């Protein structure tokens, strides 16, 4: 009897060991799968970080380019205003001179008066900025949307 009890005990222990071995194998396979997933996630993270670094460099170059172009535009607008003032002064001087009517034809005087009045309207009119750039509220890219904060560049 004792031998039969030991054999029954051994068979139940053997089944328990087989069940434990199956659980350990399932756990090992899950760990392998998770390790592969973790490696893939690290690779994707490395790719995303490399792309982010490239985009940050592009953003920095774009900010610098915008800044340079804005400076050029301000210089060009200042030069335009300076030239317009000179032209206005020349037109006013021509219109005031008594000899202008004898030297210039009526048609030329009329053109000068028209130019002088147009220049005056342009100088006094709202929105003096260049009309080649759409600066309205409907513009998709407004210079006010661009951040020139250099603290982000240090990150």
TrEMBL record:
Keywords: Coiled coil. GO terms for molecular function: GTPase activator activity. GO terms for cellular component: centralspindlin complex; cleavage furrow; midbody; nucleus; spindle midzone. The keyword Plastid does not apply. Residues 45-97 form a coiled coil. One of its GO terms (biological process) is mitotic cytokinesis. The keyword Chaperone does not apply. PANTHER family: RAC GTPASE-ACTIVATING PROTEIN 1. This is RGAP1 protein. It comes from Rhinopomastus cyanomelas (Common scimitarbill). The lineage of its organism: Eukaryota, Metazoa, Chordata, Craniata, Vertebrata.
């Amino acid at each position: 009897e004792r031998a039969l009890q030991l054999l029954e005990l051994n068979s139940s222990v053997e089944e328990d060991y087989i069940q434990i071995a199956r659980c350990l194998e399932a756990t090992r396979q899950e760990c392998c799968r998770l390790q592969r997933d973790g490696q893939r996630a690290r690779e994707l993270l490395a790719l995303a970080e490399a792309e982010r670094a490239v985009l940050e460099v592009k953003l920095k170059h774009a900010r610098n380019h915008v800044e340079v172009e804005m400076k050029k535009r301000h210089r060009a607008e200042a030069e335009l205003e300076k030239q317009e003032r000179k032209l206005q002064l020349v037109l006013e001087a021509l219109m005031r001179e008594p000899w202008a009517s004898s030297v210039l034809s009526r048609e030329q005087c009329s053109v000068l008066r028209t130019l002088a009045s147009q220049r005056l309207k342009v100088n006094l009119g709202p929105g003096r900025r260049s009309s080649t750039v759409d600066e309205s509220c409907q513009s998709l890219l407004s210079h006010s949307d661009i951040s020139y904060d250099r603290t982000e560049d240090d990150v």
